[in-house]
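User: Can you recover a sequence for this backbone? Please restate the input before giving your answer.

Assistant: Of course. Working from this structure:
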């Protein structure tokens, strides 16, 4: 910090004068580490990091504007301009520009001079030429971006000269210096440009038209200083006939330069503006653009023409727009849109949409130009089909007047198509086609009409909230009229009849109009926004359309339907209108609005398919009258006519029939209506829905016909279908080749035994197969061969027909299956509505097993996307809306016994499933039923349960408290789940899992209390049940819900039982041989720690003496397996338990510690020490250690009670008299007998520091030294260690004082002399 403060106080001048320049430099580097990091961040590729670093650098320099940091920053940024990393150069250039912009006192000439000196182009090496060139270029750009270059005349002139010098290195910089020069000169003042212009622009027209940059500089001068340019160059006509080819070449070069950037070159737009200024736009567009660039067959040039077209739209008048939008450029654009279909091909359509959207948004006050542009783009057609999409978002920018004019133009083109006004074209493949039917006008009219009708619908779809109501009504009436009605005689009351067709309306166009009308009806009837389907009169759009259709039907002399109505169908229509009037009396009810919607939609469908909708209308009207007029005494009505089904069942059948139609509008309507009638649902009505969903019965059902929407999809996609047949034919040929291969495979697989027998009989009849002596027989004649060939041909033809019939039948079955799955997915909407709006309905309980059967089947065969969708939707309804619902049935009635049986059945099915995911659904269903039974109160159920419990032998099973008021039979469900739990614990591959039972225990703790004895029993069982039981007990004992079900004595008794079981398991701790046994030991220790934690939280007192003895007895076996795989976790859990018992874990000795091994190691430690080492005869003798450890008589010295000679004073003080301490977890004992611990488990454990101080130095590897040494070993001579070995109690104060005195009187010189003697002995031994 001192050097940093010093560097901040000293200025550069003071540092130089005092001769401390090197010190200041080092001080700068020391205190400015954050400052130096700014330059690293500036070069990073992330833009946010670069900007943040630049801002921090400027903020840092603002506080030190005169310091050495400024010089270093300039030097570092200038150096960064020429770094090897190309991505870092613009970053340093931008940072330098911002620095120069922030500190205006920095002279630009000085900075430019530093750049030129740093990167001198005349002295730089050849290998560094490219970085030097870019450094000079980015340096000039930095000066320009600072905004100060145009104000500094001297720096500007030097920069211009430098750019002119850089322009000569075209191989490295290409046209970048010239572009930079043009950008700079475009910002300078007129006077400065007049002064600089003679130096930068040559007075040669050939040079001016040689490159885009020179031409752009010329155009800049012509715009700013035309008088000076005229004096310099003279009068120049760029659009003359001799200059047009050179202009085309310049524009081609400009197009190539922006090929990767995909943008419009500035030179092209400048030429366009110049042509408009000189009133030469038609000549420029015809000769330069259409006959020049467009004829080159060069895609970058074509894209330049397209971009020039889009950019020119705001600049042109209405007459000029007509010239541009009906020429070759827009026709070529249409060809590009039709042919650019492959994914990797560049598509210009999105870019053109942006151009058109920008134009329409910018000229809101000029609806005529808006309408002209939109009509022009809609008139670009490929054999009658416009290339613009039907759903074009640019219409949102249209003004109301322009929108009305566009809708009117679309209607007029639908009625009287003007093919001559279209900019029509054909692709190359279409031109090569020899089919004359592709070029007839009727086909073009049909394609145009289909596109127009869908275009009208898409306009309403995107703008129906902003459109005027009258305009929306016009479009809806237009679609309805031309979809279902035909004009017989025009009348003034119906404006649609006054518009005749120039071409007859064909059936395909009428079908497209019908499909588009229902799509429009869906848009107008959507309920996603606030009342969008309501008109100003308060009635829905469908009501007004029905009224309009009734008006048309009443004018039968002027209008007739496409499909004429019979008398019965007309009566159904009139009854529908009468029912609508009756519903108006119940308009306050939400159910009446849903019925009205249903009646209106089915009534409109009467126009499309009268025969099918007539019966539905009658049934719907009957159901509506019954539902709205029913009284609380419905049983009397049923008694009068018991054969008549309830109205809700009839209505459910109608909704199922409507769901079979591929209409999203019908699907929404069915959901809405069913949501209002599901409260009246009967078991029979629900069974009608379940019959569709049940896989066993739905495979053969025939009462519901599922329709296919392929025709409608084909009609909807007709307007976007192009006739580019080359790619289609190639893809078809590939499909045919693949089909032929598959046919060969199927042909080989479809050959049956009957065909083989027929083939053998034909060959034998033709004598083509002979016996053993067939070689001697004569060959067949020509006639016989021809007959045989004919027989074989007929046989194989019949076989091919049979194979094709089987294949068709297979495809038909697959298609029917797909339609059936789609139908089931739509019917699931009704199930979702039921469980969402009526979760308390008892009928919801009937949905469990059907949904589970769908899930079961889909999990087994969920290969197709439809099966996946069906599975996901069913699982979502089952899990989120049913099992996790907050509300459930509270009125079971007589269903309690059946639900108990269902719980048992579901649990048994869960145990028999092949996998856990399927079993989880069944188990969750049983938990849901348990919640329902537990939450219901029924006196009969409680009375019956009490009688069963009184008859039983277990009086403790009587429900008490809230359990006594529920329908749940605890004895029955306990027996069910105990069986499942036993199966889970004993069965090897059980689909049940631990989380399933944990969910059961947390939701139903009383049931858990009854199941805990099973878990405790299996704690000491075989390996796998023991492991699973321990895992379950670990989580269960920590649950608050389970603890609340136990009284304190019961809980303590349970803890004691579990502790006894765990203690029994731990007697074999450390003897694991297999992975399963090792896992069982881990789970036992984990359960033990959970017990300790629970007892600590509950403050329970348990006798842990036996457990402590067992754990201490297994310490040696654990140490033997200390290096086995996975033993570290086992040791951690073991010592965690021992720490709770008051025994601390010993600290491991370091591997590099040079300690003399004790001579009194236990046999076990010697054996483990010797394992894996070389024999004694192969060992290399370590003379130093031998000399240091052998006594004079040659016997090894006992190092357990002596200290090494190199031990210092502090370490010698640690060898004072010590109490018998714990070593490696063995508690100190008053008697030398091992294995009889006297430590109480409740005794607080000592800290590791205290244990380290009290540890005896004579204990190694956990084996305490015996007071009696083995035979053949010399007893230690020193008294201090010997006292520690005896294991006596702590000494008195007098003894400790004497020990301290004995340590103090030792002289360090004696130790040093002893060390010298040992070194001398080592030298002598080495010489000898």
């Amino acid at each position: 910090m001192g050097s940093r403060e010093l560097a901040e106080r000293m200025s550069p001048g003071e540092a130089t004068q005092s001769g401390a320049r090197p010190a200041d430099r080092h001080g700068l580097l020391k205190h400015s580490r954050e400052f130096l990091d700014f330059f690293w961040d500036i070069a990073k590729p992330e833009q946010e990091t670069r900007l943040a670093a630049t801002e921090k650098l400027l903020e840092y320099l603002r506080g030190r504007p005169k310091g050495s940091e400024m010089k270093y920053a300039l030097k570092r940024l200038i150096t960064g301009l020429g770094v090897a990393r190309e991505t870092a150069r613009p970053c340093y250039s931008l940072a330098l520009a911002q620095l120069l912009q922030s500190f205006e006192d920095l002279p630009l000439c000085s900075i430019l001079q530093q750049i030129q000196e740093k990167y001198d182009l005349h002295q730089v090496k050849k290998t560094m030429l490219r970085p030097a060139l870019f450094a000079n270029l980015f340096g000039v750009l930095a000066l320009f971006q600072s905004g100060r270059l145009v104000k500094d005349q001297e720096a500007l002139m030097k920069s211009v000269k430098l750019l002119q010098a850089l322009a000569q290195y075209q191989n490295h910089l290409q046209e970048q210096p010239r572009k930079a020069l043009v950008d700079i000169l475009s910002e300078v003042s007129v006077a400065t440009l007049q002064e600089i212009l003679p130096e930068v622009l040559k007075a040669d027209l050939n040079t001016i038209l040689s490159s885009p940059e020179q031409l752009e500089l010329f155009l800049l001068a012509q715009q700013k200083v035309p008088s000076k340019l005229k004096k310099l160059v003279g009068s120049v006509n760029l659009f003359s006939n001799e200059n047009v080819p050179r202009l085309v070449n310049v524009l081609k070069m400009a197009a190539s330069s922006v090929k990767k950037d995909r943008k419009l070159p500035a030179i092209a737009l400048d030429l366009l503006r110049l042509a408009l200024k000189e009133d030469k736009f038609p000549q420029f567009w015809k000769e330069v653009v259409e006959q020049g660039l467009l004829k080159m067959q060069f895609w970058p040039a074509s894209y330049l023409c397209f971009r020039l077209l889009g950019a020119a739209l705001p600049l042109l008048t209405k007459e000029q727009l007509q010239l541009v939008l009906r020429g070759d450029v827009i026709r070529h654009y249409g060809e590009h849109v039709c042919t650019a279909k492959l994914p990797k091909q560049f598509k210009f359509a999105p870019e053109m949409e942006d151009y058109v959207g920008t134009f329409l948004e910018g000229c809101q006050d000029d609806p005529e130009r808006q309408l002209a542009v939109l009509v022009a783009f809609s008139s670009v057609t490929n054999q009658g089909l416009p290339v613009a999409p039907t759903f074009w978002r640019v219409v949102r920018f249209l003004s109301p007047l322009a929108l009305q004019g566009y809708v009117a133009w679309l209607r007029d083109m639908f009625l009287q198509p003007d093919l001559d006004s279209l900019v029509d074209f054909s692709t190359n493949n279409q031109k090569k086609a020899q089919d004359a039917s592709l070029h007839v006008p009727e086909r073009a009219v049909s394609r145009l009409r289909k596109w127009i009708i869908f275009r009208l619908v898409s306009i309403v779809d995107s703008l129906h909230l902003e459109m005027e109501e009258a305009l929306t009504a016009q479009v809806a009436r237009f679609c309805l009229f031309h979809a279902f009605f035909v004009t017989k005689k025009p009348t003034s009351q119906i404006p649609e009849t006054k518009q005749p067709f120039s071409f007859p309306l064909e059936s395909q166009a009428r079908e497209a109009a019908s499909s588009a009308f229902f799509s429009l009806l869906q848009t107008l009837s959507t309920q996603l926004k606030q009342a969008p389907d309501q008109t100003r009169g308060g009635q829905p759009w469908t009501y007004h359309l029905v009224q309009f259709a009734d008006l048309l039907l009443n004018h039968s002399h002027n209008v007739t339907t496409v499909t004429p109505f019979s008398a019965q169908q007309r009566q159904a229509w009139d009854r529908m209108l009468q029912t609508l009037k009756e519903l108006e009396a119940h308009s306050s009810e939400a159910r009446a609005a849903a019925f009205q919607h249903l009646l209106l939609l089915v009534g409109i469908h009467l126009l499309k398919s009268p025969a099918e909708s007539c019966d539905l209308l009658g049934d719907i009207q009957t159901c509506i009258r019954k539902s709205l007029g029913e009284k609380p005494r419905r049983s009397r009505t049923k008694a009068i006519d018991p054969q008549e089904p309830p109205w809700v069942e009839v209505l459910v059948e109608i909704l199922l029939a409507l769901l079979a139609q591929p209409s999203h509008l019908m699907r929404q309507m069915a959901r809405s209506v069913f949501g209002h009638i599901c409260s009246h649902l009967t078991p029979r009505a629900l069974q009608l829905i379940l019959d569709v969903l049940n896989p066993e019965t739905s495979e053969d059902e025939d009462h519901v016909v599922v329709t296919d929407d392929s025709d409608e999809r084909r009609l909807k996609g007709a307007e976007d279908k192009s006739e580019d047949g080359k790619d289609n034919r190639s893809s078809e040929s590939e499909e045919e080749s693949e089909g032929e291969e598959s046919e060969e495979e199927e042909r080989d697989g479809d050959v049956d035994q009957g065909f083989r027998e027929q083939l053998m009989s034909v060959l034998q009849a033709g004598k083509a197969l002979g016996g053993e002596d067939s070689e001697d027989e004569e060959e067949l004649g020509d006639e016989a061969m021809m007959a045989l060939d004919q027989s074989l041909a007929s046989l194989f033809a019949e076989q091919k027909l049979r194979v094709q019939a089987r294949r068709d039948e297979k495809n038909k079955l697959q298609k029917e299956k797909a339609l059936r799955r789609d139908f089931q997915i739509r019917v699931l909407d009704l199930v979702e509505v039921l469980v969402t709006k009526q979760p308390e309905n008892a009928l919801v309980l009937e949905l469990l097993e059907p949904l589970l059967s769908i899930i079961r089947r889909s999990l087994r065969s969920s290969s197709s996307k439809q099966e996946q969708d069906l599975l996901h939707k069913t699982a979502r309804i089952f899990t989120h809306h049913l099992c996790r619902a907050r509300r459930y049935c509270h009125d079971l009635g007589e269903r309690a016994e059946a639900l108990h049986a269902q719980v048992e059945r579901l649990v048994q099915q869960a145990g028999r499933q092949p996998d856990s995911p399927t079993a989880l659904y069944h188990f969750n269903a049983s938990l849901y039923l348990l919640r329902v039974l537990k939450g219901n109160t029924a006196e009969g159920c409680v009375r019956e349960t009490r009688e069963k419990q009184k008859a039983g032998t277990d009086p403790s099973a009587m429900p008490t408290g809230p359990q006594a008021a529920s329908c749940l039979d605890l004895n029955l469900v306990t027996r069910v789940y105990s069986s499942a739990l036993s199966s889970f614990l004993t069965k090897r591959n059980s689909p049940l899992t631990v989380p399933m039972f944990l969910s059961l225990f947390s939701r139903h703790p009383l049931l858990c209390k009854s199941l805990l004895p099973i878990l405790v029993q299996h704690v000491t069982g075989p390996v796998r049940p023991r492991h699973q039981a321990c895992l379950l007990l670990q989580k269960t004992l920590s649950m608050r819900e389970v603890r609340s079900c136990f009284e304190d004595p019961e809980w303590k008794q349970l803890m004691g039982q579990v502790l006894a079981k765990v203690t029994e398991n731990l007697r074999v701790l450390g003897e694991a041989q297999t992975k399963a046994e090792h896992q069982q030991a881990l789970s036992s220790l984990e359960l033990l720690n959970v017990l300790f934690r629970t007892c600590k939280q509950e403050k329970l007192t348990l006798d842990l003496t036996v457990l402590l003895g067992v754990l201490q007895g297994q310490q040696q076996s654990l140490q033997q397996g200390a290096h086995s795989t996975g033993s570290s976790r086992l040791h951690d859990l073991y010592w965690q338990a021992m720490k709770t018992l008051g025994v601390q874990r010993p600290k491991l000795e370091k591997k590099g510690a040079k300690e003399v091994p004790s001579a009194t190691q236990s046999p076990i430690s010697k054996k483990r020490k010797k394992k894996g080492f070389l024999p004694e005869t192969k060992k290399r003798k370590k003379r130093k250690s031998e000399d240091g450890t052998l006594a004079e008589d040659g016997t090894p010295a006992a190092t357990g009670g002596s200290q090494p000679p190199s031990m210092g004073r502090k370490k010698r003080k640690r060898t004072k008299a010590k109490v018998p301490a714990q070593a490696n977890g063995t508690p100190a004992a008053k008697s030398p007998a091992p294995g009889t611990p006297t430590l109480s488990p409740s005794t607080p454990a000592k800290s590791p520091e205290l244990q380290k101080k009290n540890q005896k130095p004579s204990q190694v590897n956990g084996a305490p030294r015996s007071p009696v040494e083995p035979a053949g070993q010399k007893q230690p001579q020193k008294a201090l260690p010997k006292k520690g070995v005896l294991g006596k109690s702590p000494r008195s104060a007098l003894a400790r004082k004497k020990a301290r005195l004995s340590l103090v009187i030792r002289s360090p010189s004696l130790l040093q002399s002893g060390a010298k003697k040992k070194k001398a002995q080592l030298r002598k031994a080495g010489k000898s």
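That completes the design. The chain has a mean pLDDT of 75.
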